[in-house]
């Protein structure tokens, strides 16, 4: 039997529609339009695509987006000055700095400068701390999206074994916190983990976020497990064409209960959750 394919594209579309409804309600009831500042440094082609999609989705949902495109040579001081300006702007409820940043910029310093209340990416230490103590705050978009996808196939996480592959600050660590909040038993694995296939095979849920194409093979996955594929790697085929592949060899996962596709799984949810975080930030902001 084939595994169920969790349709991230359709679920993202639904969330975007709900967000548009919430934006309209906020406008009518409070006279406030959520505003998202999108900062792109340099011209990384993938970042250009993602930023373009974020802005297009904002437009559709009725969120005001304010785009700041800076050259790759921008100084750290200039970037910090822009963030100070955006922090002080009452029309800006969310600030997004598209990653990666150029090497000469200290990304940690830049992200820490964003006001935690406007940190719609959930990367600021205050929001990281809130997430790890289960005390609210803004949660990173990809992990939020993963939970929406998982909730579509799992009612009760209590006692389930989850193996997270990858310990990044953007995905691995925050998704582990969200799963712990649901009383799952979470094992976070990484490049140094011994016998990773054996560890993975014990999982009821695998979240693969290693950035390693087709790392997770069929024999890593227990029959009936749910597999969330977070990897997005562009590879070049024999014919010279590029295509996007995930961290999982999905064609070997017929025995899984459900899997997310790449593309069309976690990626679209990341953008939808950014918009819903922006509305959340606008809803908690002080009146202008
Ligand atoms: N400030 C941030 N920077 C980055 C984040 C982030 O959450 N915040 N995540 C990634 C990039 N990203 C969003 O910014 C992102 C990546 C992929 C997708 C997506 O929809 N992917 C498609 C496939 C790719 C394609 O079609 O080109 C899919 O999976 O279907 C959306 C957003 C790093 N930077």
From TrEMBL:
<keyword id="KW-0378">Hydrolase</keyword>
<comment type="function">
    <text>Catalyzes the oxidation of 5,10-methylenetetrahydrofolate to 5,10-methenyltetrahydrofolate and then the hydrolysis of 5,10-methenyltetrahydrofolate to 10-formyltetrahydrofolate.</text>
</comment>
<dbReference type="InterPro" id="IPR020867">
    <property type="entry name" value="THF_DH/CycHdrlase_CS"/>
</dbReference>
<feature type="domain" description="Tetrahydrofolate dehydrogenase/cyclohydrolase NAD(P)-binding">
    <location>
        <begin position="140"/>
        <end position="283"/>
    </location>
</feature>
<dbReference type="InterPro" id="IPR046346">
    <property type="entry name" value="Aminoacid_DH-like_N_sf"/>
</dbReference>
<dbReference type="GO" id="GO:0035999">
    <property type="term" value="P:tetrahydrofolate interconversion"/>
</dbReference>
<dbReference type="GO" id="GO:0005829">
    <property type="term" value="C:cytosol"/>
</dbReference>
<dbReference type="GO" id="GO:0004488">
    <property type="term" value="F:methylenetetrahydrofolate dehydrogenase (NADP+) activity"/>
</dbReference>
<comment type="pathway">
    <text>One-carbon metabolism; tetrahydrofolate interconversion.</text>
</comment>
<dbReference type="GO" id="GO:0009086">
    <property type="term" value="P:methionine biosynthetic process"/>
</dbReference>
<feature type="binding site">
    <location>
        <begin position="166"/>
        <end position="168"/>
    </location>
    <ligand>
        <name>NADP(+)</name>
    </ligand>
</feature>
<dbReference type="InterPro" id="IPR020630">
    <property type="entry name" value="THF_DH/CycHdrlase_cat_dom"/>
</dbReference>
<dbReference type="InterPro" id="IPR036291">
    <property type="entry name" value="NAD(P)-bd_dom_sf"/>
</dbReference>
<dbReference type="GO" id="GO:0004477">
    <property type="term" value="F:methenyltetrahydrofolate cyclohydrolase activity"/>
</dbReference>
<dbReference type="Pfam" id="PF00763">
    <property type="entry name" value="THF_DHG_CYH"/>
</dbReference>
<protein>
    <recommendedName>
        <fullName>Bifunctional protein FolD</fullName>
        <ecNumber>1.5.1.5</ecNumber>
        <ecNumber>3.5.4.9</ecNumber>
    </recommendedName>
</protein>
<dbReference type="InterPro" id="IPR000672">
    <property type="entry name" value="THF_DH/CycHdrlase"/>
</dbReference>
<feature type="domain" description="Tetrahydrofolate dehydrogenase/cyclohydrolase catalytic">
    <location>
        <begin position="6"/>
        <end position="121"/>
    </location>
</feature>
<keyword id="KW-0028">Amino-acid biosynthesis</keyword>
<keyword id="KW-0658">Purine biosynthesis</keyword>
<dbReference type="InterPro" id="IPR020631">
    <property type="entry name" value="THF_DH/CycHdrlase_NAD-bd_dom"/>
</dbReference>
<comment type="similarity">
    <text>Belongs to the tetrahydrofolate dehydrogenase/cyclohydrolase family.</text>
</comment>
<keyword id="KW-0560">Oxidoreductase</keyword>
<keyword id="KW-0511">Multifunctional enzyme</keyword>
<feature type="binding site">
    <location>
        <position position="191"/>
    </location>
    <ligand>
        <name>NADP(+)</name>
    </ligand>
</feature>
<dbReference type="Pfam" id="PF02882">
    <property type="entry name" value="THF_DHG_CYH_C"/>
</dbReference>
<feature type="binding site">
    <location>
        <position position="232"/>
    </location>
    <ligand>
        <name>NADP(+)</name>
    </ligand>
</feature>
<keyword id="KW-0521">NADP</keyword>
<keyword id="KW-0554">One-carbon metabolism</keyword>
<keyword id="KW-0486">Methionine biosynthesis</keyword>
<keyword id="KW-0368">Histidine biosynthesis</keyword>
<comment type="subunit">
    <text>Homodimer.</text>
</comment>
<dbReference type="GO" id="GO:0000105">
    <property type="term" value="P:L-histidine biosynthetic process"/>
</dbReference>
<dbReference type="GO" id="GO:0006164">
    <property type="term" value="P:purine nucleotide biosynthetic process"/>
</dbReference>
